[in-house]
Design a protein that fits this description.
By secondary structure, the chain is mainly α. It folds into 2 domains: 97 residues, Orthogonal Bundle (Endonuclease Iii, domain 2), CATH 1.10.1670.10; 109 residues, Endonuclease III, domain 1. Helix content is 60%, strand content 0%.
Amino acid sequence: MPTDRMPLSVALDALEKMYGTPPPPKLRDPLELILWEEVGYLVDDDKRRAAFGALKTKVGTRAERILGATHGALLSVAKLGGMNPEERVERLKKTATLALEHARELRALAALPLATAKRVLGKFPGVGEPGAEKVLLFSRSQAVLALDANGVRVLARLGYGSETKNYALTYRSVQKAAAAELTPSFDAFIRTHVLLRQHGQDTCAREAPRCEICPLRTSCVWNRSRKD
């Protein structure tokens, strides 16, 4: 570990002091975790939460309920989730169809080899490898350090991994460097994901980050480079 890089445990403790202890995830079912992502497009958490809540109350989150719902019911849900609602209706239907086709694998994610589990989840619309890892982590199927773009950005600015123009390579590099400092466990990885995501959203934004209030600023490689 570079001597000038803040240990991840110290960074996470500082973020928890700033934001509070992350609450446990409300969703654990793999299909619901996929649907959570699909009900919204380029929307904040509040709008996504509203759309998912409407899906759950008006239609249901079981595959059979989604396939049996009217187009109008699904469209009313999709409209709460931002742009291109018609396209997201079709995604919800395709997801439900795939969930029935792969029901056995979804129930057995914890028992599958990691690569196989990610391939199964990658069949669903819009689920890339990072998204598949998040489903595996939050469903407590496989303990893998899943990161979203906010978390990757925060860690890269702290000097974890190598940032390149290829996001997939950056993701893997940052993930490997961060995971090396954590004890592998669902609780540790979920805590890391949630705190880094919140920091990236609220403080360490891509544009105009609020460095003046960041508790990690003295060890931020990116912040120091701006001053050089």
